[in-house]
C-alpha cells in the first residue's frame, strides 16, 4: 500500500522530487484509463496546499485533469469521468470519500457522483482503522484501481525548504512548551502528527537519517526518539523502499537529521534584518508568497506631471521568479543597485538604442521612471524583463519607504550592539549606556509593538536584566498594553527570565553573562568570515548558522548533539581536519563594513553540486527567514546539501503572537 518515491539521488532538490512524485501520481492514474480520457481531481485543504506549493494548479491540465474539486464542499456530478482523490489521511476526509459512494435517495436514482474508476492517494500513513472503513464501503472498493500512500504530507517553501503549515491557528506553543506530555513514551497527539509528517519528508527524500538533537533540550530529545521509532516502523513495513547510504547506492551517503528548538534561540526571529526576503516578510503584507504592490501606470501619466497614477498589482515571490531567487538573500542596498544596473544596461545596450535616445529630452536630462516605462512600450522585446525588474524595484522601494518611516537604521544599530555585545567600532559598551539609548528609542517610538519588540530583544539578548529595578524602568518607558505586557512575561515559559537570578555563576554553552557590560547573545553571534563583506546593520548571525557550519564540516560536537542510535563511524561523521575528535569549532568573527558596502552572498548555492549525505535541519516552533537564508549560504559555501524545515516559517509578528498564546491553559 505504501509507495516508493522516485529513484532519485541527492542531486535533486526536495521540490524537484515532490513535483516528480505528484506527476507520477497523475500519470500512473490516467495511464490506466482507456483512450484519451480525462479525470476529476478531488482534494482536501491540505492536499490543495501541497499541490499549490509545488507543481501549481495550472500544470494539472497537462495530466488530463479536467477539474479540481474541494472534497469539503458539495460537488457537481461527473459520472462519465474517473475520480482521483488526493487527501490527508484523517477521519473527516475518509468519511467524505465514503459518503460519495454510499447509496442514498439521490444516488439510487442517478448513481454515484463519478464514473466506475476511482484512485485513492493519501499524503501520509493511513491508519488501520480508516483503512478498515474504506474496505467496508463495497461500492467504493469495487471501483478502486489504486490505493496508495504517497508520503507528501508537507509543503515545499522553496527548493530545499519545507514546512507543515502547523501553528498559525491555533498556535502550537502551548502544546510544545506547556504540555503535560513530556516524555518520548508519552508525547502529545500534535507532536506525534508533526513527527509523522517528518517521516514522509524523509521517505520522499529516500533518507533513513542518523538522528541528532541538543543534549540539553528535552523537547528535541523526545521528538528525536519518537521519530526514530516511526522511521524504523516505516522502513520495516516497506521492503521495496530504498534509502541513500543503504549500500546499494554507492554514490550517496546516509543523511543526518538534526532536531532544533525555537526556544533555544528566541533572539533571531525578533531582529530586524535587511536582506530582501526578510524585509519583505517583516515590513510588507505578504501571505503564502503573494504580495500586492503599487505599480506606476506610465500610460496614464502626462508629460511634466509628477502625480503619476499607481495600480495595485499582485506578484508571487517564489522559485518560479528567477529575479527573486537571485536577489532574495542580498542586502536591500545591493538589491536596488543590481536592479538599477540591469535597467541601465538595457537602456544603454545597442539593441536598446531607440530607448536610449528617447530617454533624453532636449535639455539632455534623463526621463522619469514613468516616461522610461512609456518609451519601453515601443520595444516589445524588453517588456517581460523590464516588467519583472520594475516589479522588484517597486517592492524594494516599498521596503525602503517603511525602513525610512520607522527609522530602522538607528534602531538596527542598537539591536546589533545588544545581540553581538559590541558596537560597529568593536567597542564593548556598558549595559547602562545601552539601556539609556533604549529608553530614548522608546520615547521617540509611537508604535507600541515596536517598543515591545525592542524590549524583548533587550531581555532575550542579555538573558534577562540585572535587576527588577532595571525592568521596572524599562516597562514604564515602554508603555505596553496589558496584552503586550502579558506576552512579554510569557518569554519566561521559553526559558528566558525577565530578570537574571543573582549570583548564578552559570557557565553554560552560551558563556558567562557579565554584569556591567553588554554581552553577546551567543559566542558565534558575529557574522563569520565566510562572507567577504558585511554591513554594520548585519553584524549579527543567527545561532543556527554556526551550528550548520559545524555540521557541514563534520565538527558538530557529539557530546552537545548526541544521536539516538550510535553513530556508525566517528571518522565517517567528521571532517578530515577533525577525524575522531568530537569538539566544536572555535568562534569565528570578521570585520564589517558600512551600509554602503557590498555583499557577495550567493543566494543560488543550491545550483552547486553537493557532496556527502544530506543535512536535514528541523526547527520545532517555527523557523525565521534569517535562518532560511543562512541555510542557503552554508550550502553554497560548503557544497553540502542542506534541507531545512519547520512546522512553519515565522515573521517577527508571528513570534510575538506565539508568545501571547503561551498565556493559554496548558494542553
Key terms:
single chain; 667 residues; alpha/beta; 5-stranded parallel β-sheet; 24 helices; 16 strands; globular; disordered N terminus
Give the rounded overall mean pLDDT. Answer: 83
Shape: globular
For the termini, the CA-CA separation is 34 Å
Largest sheet: 6 strands, mixed
Structure in a nutshell:
The protein has about 675 residues and is an alpha/beta fold. The chain has helices at about 15-30, 45-50, 90-100, 105-110, 130-135, 140, 175, 190-205, 220-235, 275-285, 320-325, 330-350, 355-360, 370-375, 385-405, 410-420, 430-445, 450-460, 470-480, 480-490, 545-555, 570-575, 625-640, 650-660, and strands at about 40-45, 65-70, 80-85, 120, 145-150, 155-160, 160-165, 210, 255-260, 285, 290-295, 310-315, 610-620, 625, 640-645, 650.
Amino acid at each position: 500500500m505504501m509507495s516508493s518515491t522516485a529513484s532519485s539521488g541527492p542531486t535533486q532538490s526536495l521540490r524537484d522530487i515532490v513535483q516528480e512524485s505528484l506527476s507520477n501520481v497523475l500519470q500512473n492514474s490516467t495511464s490506466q484509463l482507456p483512450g484519451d480520457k480525462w479525470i476529476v481531481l478531488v482534494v482536501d485543504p491540505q492536499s490543495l496546499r501541497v499541490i499549490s506549493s509545488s507543481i501549481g494548479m495550472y500544470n494539472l491540465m497537462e495530466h488530463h485533469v479536467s477539474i479540481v474539486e474541494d472534497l469539503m464542499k458539495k460537488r457537481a456530478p461527473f459520472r462519465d469521468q474517473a475520480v482521483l482523490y488526493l487527501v490527508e489521511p484523517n477521519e473527516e476526509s475518509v468519511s467524505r470519500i465514503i459518503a460519495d459512494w454510499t447509496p442514498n435517495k439521490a444516488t439510487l436514482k442517478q448513481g454515484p457522483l463519478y464514473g466506475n474508476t476511482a484512485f485513492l492517494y493519501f499524503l501520509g500513513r493511513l491508519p488501520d482503522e480508516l483503512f478498515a472503513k474504506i474496505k467496508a464501503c463495497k461500492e467504493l472498493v469495487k471501483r478502486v484501481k489504486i490505493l496508495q500512500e504517497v508520503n507528501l504530507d508537507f509543503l515545499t517553501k522553496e527548493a530545499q525548504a519545507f514546512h507543515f503549515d502547523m501553528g498559525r491557528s491555533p498556535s502550537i506553543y502551548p502544546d510544545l512548551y506547556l504540555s503535560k506530555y513530556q516524555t518520548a513514551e508519552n508525547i502529545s497527539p500534535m507532536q506525534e502528527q508533526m513527527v509523522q509528517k517528518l517521516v514522509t519528508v524523509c521517505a520522499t527524500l529516500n533518507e533513513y537519517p542518523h538522528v541528532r538533537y541538543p543534549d540539553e533540550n528535552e523537547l528535541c530529545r523526545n521528538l528525536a526518539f519518537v521519530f526514530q521509532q516511526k522511521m524504523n516502523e516505516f522502513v520495516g513495513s516497506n521492503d521495496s523502499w530504498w534509502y541513500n547510504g543503504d549500500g546499494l547506492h554507492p554514490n550517496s551517503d546516509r543523511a543526518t537529521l538534526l532536531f532544533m528548538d525555537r526556544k533555544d534561540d528566541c533572539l533571531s526571529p525578533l531582529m530586524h534584518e535587511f536582506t530582501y526576503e526578510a524585509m519583505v516578510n517583516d515590513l510588507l503584507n505578504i501571505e503564502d508568497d503573494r504580495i500586492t504592490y503599487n505599480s506606476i501606470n506610465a500610460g496614464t501619466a502626462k508629460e511634466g506631471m509628477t502625480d503619476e497614477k499607481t495600480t495595485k498589482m499582485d506578484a508571487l515571490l517564489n522559485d518560479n521568479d528567477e529575479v527573486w531567487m537571485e536577489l532574495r538573500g542580498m542586502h536591500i542596498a545591493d538589491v536596488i543597485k543590481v536592479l538599477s544596473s540591469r535597467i541601465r544596461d538595457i537602456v544603454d545596450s545597442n539593441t536598446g538604442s531607440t530607448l536610449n535616445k528617447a530617454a533624453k529630452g532636449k535639455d539632455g536630462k534623463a526621463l522619469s521612471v514613468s516616461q522610461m516605462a512609456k518609451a519601453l512600450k515601443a520595444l516589445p522585446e524588453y517588456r517581460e524583463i523590464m516588467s519583472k525588474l520594475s516589479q522588484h524595484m517597486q517592492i524594494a522601494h516599498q521596503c525602503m519607504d517603511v525602513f525610512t518611516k520607522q527609522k530602522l537604521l538607528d534602531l538596527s544599530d542598537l539591536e546589533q550592539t545588544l545581540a553581538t555585545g559590541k558596537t560597529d567600532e568593536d567597542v564593548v559598551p556598558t549595559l547602562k549606556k545601552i539601556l539609556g539609548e533604549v529608553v530614548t528609542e522608546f520615547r521617540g517610538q509611537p508604535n507600541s509593538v515596536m517598543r515591545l519588540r525592542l524590549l524583548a530583544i533587550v531581555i532575550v539578548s542579555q538573558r534577562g536584566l540585572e535587576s527588577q529595578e532595571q525592568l521596572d524602568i524599562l516597562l514604564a518607558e515602554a508603555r505596553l498594553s496589558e496584552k503586550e505586557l502579558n506576552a512579554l512575561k510569557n518569554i519566561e515559559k521559553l526559558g528566558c527570565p525577565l530578570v537574571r537570578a543573582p549570583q548564578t555563576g552559570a557557565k553554560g554553552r552560551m558563556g558567562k553573562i557579565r554584569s556591567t557590560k553588554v554581552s553577546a547573545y551567543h559566542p558565534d553571534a558575529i557574522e563569520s568570515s565566510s562572507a567577504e563583506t558585511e554591513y554594520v546593520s548585519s553584524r549579527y548571525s543567527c545561532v543556527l548558522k554556526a551550528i550548520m557550519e559545524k555540521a557541514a564540516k563534520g565538527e558538530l560536537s557529539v557530546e552537545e548533539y548526541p544521536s539516538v542510535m550510535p553513530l556508525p563511524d566517528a571518522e565517517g561523521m567528521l571532517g578530515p581536519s577533525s577525524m575522531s575528535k568530537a569538539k566544536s569549532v572555535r568562534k569565528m568573527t570578521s570585520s564589517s563594513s558600512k551600509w554602503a558596502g557590498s555583499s557577495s552572498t550567493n543566494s543560488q548555492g543550491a545550483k552547486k553540486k553537493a557532496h556527502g549525505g544530506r543535512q536535514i535541519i528541523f526547527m520545532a516552533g517555527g523557523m525565521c527567514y534569517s535562518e532560511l537564508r543562512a541555510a542557503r549560504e552554508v550550502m553554497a559555501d560548503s557544497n553540502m546539501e542542506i534541507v531545512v524545515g519547520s512546522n512553519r516559517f515565522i515573521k517577527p509578528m508571528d513570534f510575538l503572537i506565539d508568545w501571547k498564546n503561551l498565556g493559554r491553559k496548558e494542553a
